[in-house]
């Protein structure tokens, strides 16, 4: 087990972080390609919007998994966390842009939806919460902000839960997939709760 | 008594699918050259409104018994056995019985009805249905004088319907209409699309189509029709009464609690299709508004 973990860790050390940006960009490029060439079914707008939103949630989950992975499994992927987080934000932006320009289109209706539709309000709130996180995802901010930086970036916990609720709320009826996403998000946050003191190895 | 309602959606009767597709391409080309106006203005003139292609109609369906994804019904509904098919007609009728579908069809006149189809999710299509008026079927069974409502039930076959493993709705799917809505000449039982047998994912072998109501009212694969004097329960209303009322008439002024119903996205326009305004009673206001005279449509959503 530890040999396996060590192998992962040493392999990870040899991967430059820019590779992660490129790899995580591929799903978006593929989706856009599909959207133009008919691979997204009969309603490419909704399909593109939903797929981008799901990728955003997946990457937020991936970002949330990095700390518990190190803590409980010893797998150290911390150096990729910024790339995962920024790409999650990029997918949120793309998802939002498709909703704005291809789905709703009408400016008066956009603002009405944000204010009046709870699932849109929640999704929009998650997007807004992520903006300061994306803006401060750089070494200079970490240096100048000091301990406040860690506090600020705990906002991702709130954004993740809002994103999960947004997904549950937008579907018609009770559906399984959004509940699975939510369960994973809640599980990853639960792992961060402070447990009673126990013996450490 | 068929042919009570005259179609106003197309200028000619039946456009063969192939010819229709060619024409569509011509139109698309013309649009590219700026010879045709925006979709929104085209829609205002009913005569230019044209059916969606077969693939739009048959590969983008809500039929949760086969899964909640739009492509799930097309993928899984093939497993549904539709022959033989019987429809139980019971309740307040003179001749309650299990009717074999082929016997029903022998007695009915099939005609084409090109209707707008507006989903409660705010997308829309135009579908060239083939079917007969529900009134003819109800008259065949003989509606008794005290009957006020018609209840419908979809087939429930867990072996053939992978979606019913999940409690998305309280299966079987049920729907209902007021008797005057059911007897309205616009209300049909559809058995075909584009002159072909209706595909399973669209509700084979026989489904309701009520074009002025949101799509979920048009219940699919019907096995039971019950005449009653009480408002029957309906599936989406049971699942969420605040969001889905018994009437569910298309109404741009009454929002769904989670989204606006003022506009809709017509399917088939690709990535950059424009939204269009939703029409009162889905464009059938002249025909059906009198059914609801004096009713508060906000309270009776």
Describe it.
The complex is a heterodimer of chains A (201) and B (301). Chain A is mostly helical and 201 residues long. Chain A has one domain (2-190). Chain A has ten helices and no strands. Chain A is globular, with a radius of gyration of 18 Å. By secondary structure, chain B is an alpha+beta fold. In chain B, strands 3, 4, 7, 8, 9, 11 and 12 form a seven-stranded mixed beta sheet that branches. In chain B, strands 2-1-10-5-6 form a five-stranded mixed beta sheet. Chain B is 20% helix and 21% strand. Chain B contains nine helices and twelve strands. Chain B has a single domain (17-292), classed as Sulfite Oxidase, Chain A, domain 2, CATH 3.90.420. In chain B, strand 1 and strand 2 form a beta hairpin. At the A-B interface, helix 3, helix 4, helix 5 and helix 6 of A face loops of B.
Main pleated-sheet profile of chain B: 7 strands, mixed
How many helical stretches of chain A?
10
The CATH class of chain B is: Alpha Beta
Which CATH architecture of chain B is right? Answer: Alpha-Beta Complex
Mean pLDDT figure of chain B: 89
Summarize model confidence as the mean pLDDT of chain A: 93
Strand content of chain A: under 5%
Strand content of chain B: 15-25%
The biggest sheet of chain A amounts to:
none
Helix content of chain B: 10-25%
- Biggest chain contact: A-B, 30 and 32 residues
Indicate the multimeric state.
heterodimer
SS content category of chain B: alpha+beta
Ends distance of chain B? 31 Å
Q: For the CA atoms, what is the radius of gyration of chain A?
A: 18 Å
Structural class estimated from helices and strands of chain A: mainly alpha
Family (chain B): Belongs to the MsrP family.
Protein name (chain B): Protein-methionine-sulfoxide reductase catalytic subunit MsrP
Keywords (chain B): Metal-binding, Molybdenum, Oxidoreductase, Signal
Catalytic activity (chain B): L-methionyl-[protein] + a quinone + H2O = L-methionyl-(S)-S-oxide-[protein] + a quinol; L-methionyl-[protein] + a quinone + H2O = L-methionyl-(R)-S-oxide-[protein] + a quinol
């Amino acid at each position: 087990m530890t040999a396996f973990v060590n192998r992962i860790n040493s392999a990870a050390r040899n991967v430059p972080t820019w590779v992660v940006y490129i790899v995580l960009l591929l799903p978006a490029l593929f989706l856009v390609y599909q959207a133009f060439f008919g691979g997204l079914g009969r309603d490419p707008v909704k399909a593109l919007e939903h797929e981008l939103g799901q990728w955003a949630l997946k990457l937020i989950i991936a970002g949330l998994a990095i700390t518990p992975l190190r803590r409980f499994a010893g797998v150290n992927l911390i150096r990729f966390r910024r790339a995962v987080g920024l790409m999650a934000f990029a997918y949120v932006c793309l998802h939002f842009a498709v909703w704005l320009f291809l789905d709703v289109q009408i400016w008066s209706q956009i603002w009405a939806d944000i204010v009046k539709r709870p699932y849109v309000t929640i999704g929009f709130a998650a997007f807004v919460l992520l903006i300061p996180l994306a803006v401060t995802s750089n070494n200079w901010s970490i240096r100048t902000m000091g301990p406040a930086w860690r506090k600020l970036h705990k906002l991702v916990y709130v954004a993740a839960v809002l994103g999960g609720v947004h997904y549950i709320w937008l579907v018609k009826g009770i559906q399984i997939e959004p509940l699975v996403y939510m369960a994973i998000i809640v599980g990853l946050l639960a792992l961060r709760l402070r447990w009673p003191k126990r013996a450490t190895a | 008594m068929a042919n009570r309602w005259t179609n106003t959606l197309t200028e000619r009767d039946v456009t063969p699918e192939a010819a229709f597709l060619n024409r569509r391409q011509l139109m698309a080309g013309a649009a590219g050259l700026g010879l045709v106006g925006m979709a929104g203005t085209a829609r205002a003139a009913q005569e230019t409104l044209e059916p969606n292609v077969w693939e739009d109609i048959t590969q983008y369906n809500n039929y949760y018994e086969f899964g909640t994804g739009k492509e799930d019904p097309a993928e899984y509904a093939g497993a549904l056995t539709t022959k033989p098919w019987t429809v139980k007609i019971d309740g307040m009728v003179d001749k309650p019985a299990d009717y074999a579908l082929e016997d029903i069809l022998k007695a009915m006149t099939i005609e084409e009805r090109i209707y707008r189809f507006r989903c409660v999710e705010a997308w829309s299509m135009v579908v060239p249905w083939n079917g007969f008026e529900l009134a003819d079927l109800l008259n065949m069974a003989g509606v008794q004088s005290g009957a006020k409502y018609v209840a419908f039930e979809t087939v429930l076959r867990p072996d053939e319907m992978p979606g019913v493993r999940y409690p998305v709705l309280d299966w079987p799917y049920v729907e209902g209409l007021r008797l005057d809505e059911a007897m309205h000449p616009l209300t049909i039982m559809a058995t075909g699309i584009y002159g072909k047998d209706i595909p399973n994912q669209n509700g084979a072998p026989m489904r309701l189509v009520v074009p002025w109501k949101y799509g979920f009212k048009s219940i699919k694969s019907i096995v039971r029709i019950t005449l009653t004097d009480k408002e029957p329960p309906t599936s989406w209303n049971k699942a969420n009464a605040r969001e889905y009322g018994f009437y569910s008439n298309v109404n741009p002024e009454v929002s769904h609690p989670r989204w606006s119903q003022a506009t809709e996205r017509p399917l088939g326009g690709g990535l950059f299709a424009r939204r269009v305004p939703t029409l009162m009673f889905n464009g059938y206001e002249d025909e059906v508004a009198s059914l609801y005279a004096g009713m508060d449509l906000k309270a009776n959503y």
